[in-house]
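S.,

Sequence below, as promised.
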Amino acid sequence: MSINEFKNIPGNPCIMSDTDSVVLPKPLPNNLVGKELGDMKLEYIIKHGIFIRKKFYYILDDNGNETMKSSGINSKLLDKNKYIKLFFIFFILYFFLSDPIYSRYLE
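The prediction came back faster than expected:
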């Protein structure tokens, strides 16, 4: 099964994915999870997550453990509040740059 098939599960929409991982709001059925090479594995039960882009996210799991990934930036410089601020900056820039009214000023 390719990663793309995990992105299109009815009733379990993909929140984020990468080459070999996917974040879903609901657990996968047991027949799709295993311990063999190539099988999907449950790594976290996420209590809170901030997903900015691939390899750039904050996760608080159900045990209170924080996981921070920040490709291109030292994650030790970041905390949950900075991830929240970065999320809104990326969100605003995305809509600003995709709006033809504003993007014409960037040409």
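Residues 3-106 form one domain.

Coffee later?
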